[in-house]
Amino acid sequence: MWKYITQRILLMFMTLFIITGICFVLIRMLPLPPLPAEDPHSVIVEMQREAAGYNKPYMVQFGIFLKNIFTKFDWGVSDKLYIGREVADIFLDKLPATIIVNIYSILLSIPIGILLGIFAALKKNTWIDHTISTLTMVVISVPSFVYAFIIQYVFYYKLNILPALMNAGKDFFTWSMFKSMLPAIMSLSFGVIAGFTRTTRAELTEVLTSEFMLLARTKGLTKTQATVRHALKNCMVVVLPSIFGQFISILSGSLIIERIFSVPGVGTLYLNSILAPDYPLFMMLTVFYTSIGLVAAIVVDISYGFIDPRIRMGSKK
After folding, report:
1. Which residues pair with 77 in a beta bridge?
2. Which one of 8, 172, 195, 264 has the minimum C-beta count within 10 Å?
3. Which residues, 6+ apart, have CB-to-CB distance to 100 below 8 Å?
4. What integer is the mean pLDDT of 145-172?
5. What are the helix (H) ranges across 30-55?
6. Helix, strand or coil for residue 163?
7. Residues pairing with 86 in the sheet
């Protein structure tokens, strides 16, 4: 097991290194955005570009880039959006908004999704199961930004009970701020709820038809006792890793949802860095999003072996 974990981590770092190298070279091949002559911070950016070796071969520049990150955690300075400001400082300033919105979304979505999945599995092949399954497929098929526009239309334009955009500021734990975050939270929740509903329903349905469940019933357990003690426990082997993956993914946020509701998080920052363009900022966020995706995948994969001791990852037997 530990050998497999080590192999996966090394493979993750190798993948991250390759993706980072490709993105870095492609970015440096693009023309540099012009600096405003009247901005005093332009001098700082010019000095940073010189130190980063912009006039040297690409592989030398990449070596300097990696050296600055590993020795000083220096990702450079913004050369368009926040001229002269440290890229790492900008990122850390925007990260809390993304985390807060996504934590609220996950805390709302996971219990609802699991409960709907359990209910549908227990009512298999009834109109309740068909209704939940149909709605689940519809919700999964529709892009999240469609729900964002519907929520804005219903709760802001028609009912006028929620604001259209998230409030500015960093007082995330006040009622006013939470109320302004609700439209974004609801928009992010639909897809997560549908995903957990489908996964839970599929796994629990399979477990309920297993032979060991029939054995549990013949021993005298009621349907409820057999479901709670045995079926749900086996079902969670698949559901729990998905929960771990969701909690890791809260750092990445949602590019489109954050943009629609003006959430001052890393998603909005990423889109703005592309539109600007702001190459140092874009490079850091690209590495960040790639890392989150790789870490989430490896945690979900490895967690199977810890949740169920019968699973031996990487075993040849």
Report:
1. 86
2. 172
3. 172, 181
4. 88
5. 42-51
6. coil
7. 77
